[in-house]
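User: My instructor asked us to take a sequence, write out its structure as tokens, and then describe one feature of it. I'm not sure where to start. Here is the sequence I was given:
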Amino acid sequence: MSDVPAKRQKVGGSALTNLHFLLLYAAMLVAAAGNTALQSVMPAIGRAIGIADFWVAIAYTWSAVLWVWLAPLWAEKSDHHGRKALTQLGLVGFIVSMTLCGLVLISGLNGWTGPALTFLLFGLFRAIYGALGCATPSATQAYLAARTRRSARTAQLSALSSSFGLGTIVGPALAPLFVLPFIGLPGPLFAFALIALGVAVAIQWWLPDDRGKLGDGRGAAMSYPSLASMITGASVRAATAPQRQKRLSWSDGRIRQWIVAGVVAGHAQAATLTCIGFFIIDVLRIEPLGAEQPIAIVMMAGAGGTLAAQWGLIPKLGLAPRALIVWGALIAALGLGVTAAASDLYGLVLGFGLASIGFGFTRPGFTAGASLAVPLAEQGAVAGVITSANGIAYVIAPAAGMALYALDPHLPFAVAVLVVVALAWWGRKLR
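Assistant: Let's start with the prediction itself. The structure tokens for your sequence are:
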């Protein structure tokens, strides 16, 4: 049976078969889809258990902080250790984390543990995903790169990285289907854990072991999988750089303005994304059980807007980096304003979709601007800064957004509008 995949058609420019590529793709897809599925049901779960919205947001964004911190370390390890083993390590971390989180949430929903203990345990179990799950993206990249000619690496790694973007739609789309009567709202956690288990078994069975024959390919850290962390190509540039490079300083004069623009836009997006599920429940005045469907619809509109901007509008319009930031910030401001003023599902979908299109412009804008500001020899180094900038918003923005939400549900969106309008005004001066 192990000889069958080797006889199948090879991936262009690579020694991998299509089956091998699909296994690597599935490993990244399930982690991204599972994470966004969790984001779509957590507001409803928090309301059903009776914990303050602020602590719900902090509990499930804690893993993002660990991801930002540890992803570069796992990327370095992918240079020297078996990439298949590291891919499996990340999947096991995802499976264990989702299963334990699902069990503790069932306990909280049934009143077996109190709200505070439930979310304390949930935060601890989510840490497993943040600490280990980030090993999978860099390991799968390194596995693919080591078996692909240099001339074809960029194209194949870009195709592999697109799994994260697809996952942002797949996760919320499937989540409501797994809210089953005998499990309830935590159902998607168990469903994606089972899917990931199937992927891990398939990888163990059909993906060749690479220990002792690592090759010269390597992976790179990727941003935390979320609607606010679209793929920008930075990890691909880092993985295909001539050699692993030390990161540039964030204060480097050539890239500083572009990184500031990216961090500002990222904070506005991450803060409002953290609040959107709770906002949907409050605007529509619906019970927690059943809220997962409208939340999923709005999140899918956001993911679709992001991908439409990234895969359709930007290549068609051909805007320069500065224009992407200015116009993206203005579109995001319009979308956030519509979202804040919405009184029904249509308004929420329209507003959040528009906002996501705007942020879908700003992130590639600051990425391209920073990349063009340095020579080819430093592309790997600037890519590391870009990846960090993409993830840094999850350190403060979720807590800040929920703190504003506690004062008034419209306040996070109003503040974000002011922030991105200021970004648009300031962005006109970017060089």
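For the description part of your assignment, you could build on this observation: The two ends are 57 Å apart (CA to CA). Try explaining in your own words what that tells you about the chain.
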